[in-house]
Each structure stands twice: as C-alpha cells, then as structure tokens.
C-alpha cells in the first residue's frame, strides 16, 4: 500500500511506504522514500529512505547516513548496519528474502535519512549524461544541497539537532558536508539548519596516512614480524602508500609484507578471507589473485539449509540484499521511478576507490585528505564522534588517531579509557576539546570495517549515549 505525495516545487517526491515485500503485515515504523533533485537543473536525482525515530521524533536528532565506496547503496546500512530491518538468511516471503526487525536499529533514538549518494548509487539516477560523473567535492556539495532541501520539504524537523554521519569512504566527504552546512547558515541560506556536528565510523580521511598505517597495524596485531616491520619502515622512509618504485629494497620489503597478509581479510582480520589476495600497500609485483572461495557470485542458502558450514563468507549475505532490491514488487513498493535503474548494485564499481588511482570512469577522487575540514570545524560550535573497529585493517584505528592528534586538541575527561556495554568492555575512548568543539574517539572491540555490522549492540549503545550528550 502506498500513499504518494508530489511536491509542486522542484522534482522532489515523497512516498509513505506502509508495507514491504518480505515483511508480514504493516511496518511498525514510519518509512518514507523519495527523490530530491540537486545540482545544475536538478539533473541529479538522489534517492533516499527516511525512517522517523521510533523514540521521540519531535526532539530526537535528524541524521543523514552515507555509505562508503564511493558508490555503495545505503540499503547496506538499512539491512546490515544501523537500519530498522534485517534479512532472515535462508527464509523467503513474497518470493524475496524475508525481513525481520533489528533490535539495535539506530532509528530507536534518531530520525535517519539513508541517502543513495553520489549519483548513480543505489536507486539514484541522472536526467542527463553529463551529470553521471561525480567527485569528492561535487558529491559533498550536492549532499549539502540535499540536506537543506530535505528540511525545507520537512519543516517539522527544523529544530531537531542535525548530524552528518556515515562510514568508510564517506569519511572523506562528511566533514566537507558539515562545514558546508555551517557555512550556508552563515551566508543566510534558507532554511537555517540546526547543524550540531558529525559522526564517522571507520572513516577514510587522510588517504596516504590511513593506508600507511596499515603496516604499523599489521605489526601490532602480529601479522608481520618486528624485523620486517622495522626494515620496511626504514627502507621506505615510512611512506608505503606512495613508495618510490625505483627504490628496489623498499619494493622488495612491500612484496614480503603483502605475501604475509595475502590470506588475511582486510576488513575483519578474524573473518575468513573470501576475496582475492590482500595487498596492504602498492607493490611492483603484487601477489597474484588466488582462487576466490566465492566461486558462485550468488551463493544463496535455501530455507532448509543450516547456516553452519565450512567457510563463512560475509559477502554471501549481501547477495540477499541484491535479490531483494532488484525485485519488481520491491521497486514498486519503494516507488522507484520506472526505467531509471536497470539493475540495483550493492556498489557501483565504476566509482569504487582504489588508492593507486586518481579516478574511476564515473568518479574523481579529488580530495586527498579531509583533515583540513576537520580543522575548520574545530572553530565551530560542533560535536564529533569518530569510531573505529579495532579489527579493521582497511582503515586502521592507528591512522585515525594520528590525524586526530594532528588537530592539536586538548584531551579532556578520558584518555584511552574503557567504556562498557552490558557490563563488558566494549572498547576504549578518548575525549578532546577546543573552545566550543568536542570530539570523542572510540574503538569498538572486536569490530571490523563498518563497525556496526560486527558489533551492533555496542555501537547502538555508544551512539545512544552520544546523542543524549552522555559519556559513552
């Protein structure tokens, strides 16, 4: 059942979704989907899912959540990270994977916009071929434009505290978007937004520094020896991400490092590795692709099968989302505009970031580091929460702490103090401040890249406390 509301201004549209294929009965939360046009002539049509807070929607924060990639659909967050629903693996209903409620959904404490950005991500599309291409700066500016237009179209959220949030590669654009929203208020753009800060999980921030930190992380967790770590550090002058290919000793060291971590899952070092060989940093002679354990790109689990098997490949679970999102009835329920998306993709590989490339066919990586934007925000009345799974080798917490330290903030109440969830140590926190700016950095014990996917209860409790201005 759909209730469709067309807005006369612009090409925005809103749909209240009452039911979804795969879930029995009416949804027990308020779900809205829609499009907002941004950019020149609004040629970029950004698709969103909006879930009103299940707590106190009139007062709870309004947050926008951005997936990584870039180019990964935010449905991943909706199902696997912080959303109100989960997929019941192996169960089907309405000819699609069955859905169930997520007890750790962040929608219990916040109004959340899950945005498919940049363009050609998820269900987002363009009306002109020229608008197909995006970049870090353009994506950030378009998302800031989206936020102002969203609040214009939803004026009842004008007074709610607003935060820009997301994970992984979105760490590049989150501080840019946040600064742009503050700046827009300064310039008198309407409506005036109640922007109060930002949050980033496992955030890629300083591309060179974050990737360089993989070597130190691999040593800290005993994946490479001290001798190899020290030799590589010395021979490469502590620069591995952009190592000089003419420095043969450095290249040889990097080859040795890559051989030792080739079978490690870079996103969660304790998970089985189901993908081609891991290279921590660039190599002249990269380790050749091993045979992937995911021989079948769609390896579904039948309703009668057990989830217990020899090799657990987390990526197999994502295939359920792909099946669900490409179902014709699902697209109708979400009111996806007919003919705009031929195939929903978990991630648009024509945008996905590779550290050795300046661009991809549809995306230019034109921000090498967003630390300067964090620095600008330290002069704002602004709150920040940065969290990292401590088993993430993709964007290691050691690199994240390095750029945070470069902001020259003062450590306040906590300095690597444990915080607890259900009586157990859930990670470690450090609190910083500078005038009216505050930042909390927290590790999530046992979590990998996209920390809420691995430790949902701990991450939910962490943000619940932070939103409420309580110590995490």
Q: What amount of the residues lies in strands? A: 15-25%
Counting DSSP E segments of at least 2 residues, the number of strands comes to: 18
Assembly form of the protein? single chain
Say what the CATH topology of one domain is.
Rossmann fold
> What is the CATH homologous superfamily assignment of one domain?
Alpha/Beta hydrolase fold, catalytic domain
Give the H and E element order.
EEEEEHEEEEEHEHEHHHHHEEHEHEEEHH
Structural class by SSE content: alpha/beta
Largest sheet: 13 strands, mixed
Low-confidence segments: 1-10, 283-309
CATH architecture of one domain: 3-Layer(aba) Sandwich
**Given this structure, which CATH class of one domain is correct?**
Alpha Beta
What is the end-to-end distance?
Answer: 40 Å
Radius of gyration: 22 Å
Helix content: 25-40%
The overall pLDDT average reads 91
Query: If helices are DSSP runs of H or I spanning 4 or more residues, what is the number of helices?
Result: 12
What would the principal axes of the Cα set say about the shape? globular
GO molecular function: acyltransferase activity, transferring groups other than amino-acyl groups; serine-type carboxypeptidase activity
Keywords: Carboxypeptidase, Glycoprotein, Hydrolase, Protease
Organism: Mikania micrantha (bitter vine)
InterPro entries: AB_hydrolase_fold (IPR029058), Peptidase_S10 (IPR001563), Ser_caboxypep_his_AS (IPR033124)
């Amino acid at each position: 059942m759909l209730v469709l509301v067309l807005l006369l201004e612009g090409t925005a549209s809103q749909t209240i979704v009452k039911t979804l294929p795969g879930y029995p009965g009416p949804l027990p939360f308020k779900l809205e989907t829609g499009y907002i046009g941004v950019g020149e002539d609004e040629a970029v049509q950004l698709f969103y899912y909006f879930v009103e807070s299940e707590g106190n929607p009139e007062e709870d924060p309004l947050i926008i959540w951005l997936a990584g990639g870039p180019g990964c659909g935010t449905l991943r967050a909706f199902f696997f990270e912080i959303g109100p629903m989960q997929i019941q693996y192996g169960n089907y209903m309405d000819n699609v994977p069955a859905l169930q409620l997520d007890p750790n959904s962040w929608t219990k404490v916040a109004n959340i916009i899950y945005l498919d950005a940049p363009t050609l991500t998820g269900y987002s599309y363009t009306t002109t071929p020229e608008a197909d291409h995006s970049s870090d700066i353009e994506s950030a500016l378009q998302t800031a434009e989206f936020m102002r237009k969203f609040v214009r179209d939803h004026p009842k959220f004008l007074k709610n505290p607003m935060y820009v949030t997301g994970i992984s590669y979105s760490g590049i654009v989150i501080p840019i978007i946040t600064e742009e929203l503050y700046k827009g208020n300064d310039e008198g753009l309407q409506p005036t937004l109640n922007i109060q800060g930002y949050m980033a999980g496992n955030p890629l921030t300083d591309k060179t520094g974050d990737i360089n930190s993989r070597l130190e992380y691999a040593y800290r967790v005993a994946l490479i020896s001290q001798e190899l770590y020290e030799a590589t550090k010395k021979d490469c002058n502590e620069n591995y991400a952009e190592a000089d290919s003419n420095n043969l000793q450095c290249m040889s060291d990097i080859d040795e490092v890559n051989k030792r971590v080739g079978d490690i899952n870079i996103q969660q070092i304790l998970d089985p590795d189901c993908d081609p060989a891991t290279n921590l940093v660039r190599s002249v002679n990269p380790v050749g692709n091993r045979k992937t354990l995911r021989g079948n790109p769609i390896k579904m689990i039948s309703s009668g099968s057990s989830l217990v098997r020899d090799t657990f490949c987390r990526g197999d679970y994502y295939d359920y989302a792909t099946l669900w999102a490409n179902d014709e009835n699902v697209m109708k329920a979400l009111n996806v505009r007919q003919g705009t998306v031929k195939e929903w993709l978990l991630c648009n590989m024509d945008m996905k970031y590779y550290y050795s490339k300046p661009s991809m066919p549809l995306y230019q990586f034109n921000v090498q580091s967003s630390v300067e934007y964090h620095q600008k925000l330290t002069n704002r009345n602004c709150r920040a929460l940065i969290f990292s799974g401590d088993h993430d080798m993709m964007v290691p917490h050691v690199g994240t702490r390095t750029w945070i330290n470069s902001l020259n903030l003062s450590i306040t109440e906590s300095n690597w103090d444990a915080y607890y969830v259900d009586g157990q140590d859930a990670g470690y926190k450090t609190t910083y401040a500078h005038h009216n700016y505050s930042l909390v950095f927290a590790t999530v014990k046992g979590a990998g890249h996209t920390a809420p996917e691995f430790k949902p209860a701990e991450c939910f409790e962490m943000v619940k406390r932070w939103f409420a201005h309580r110590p995490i």
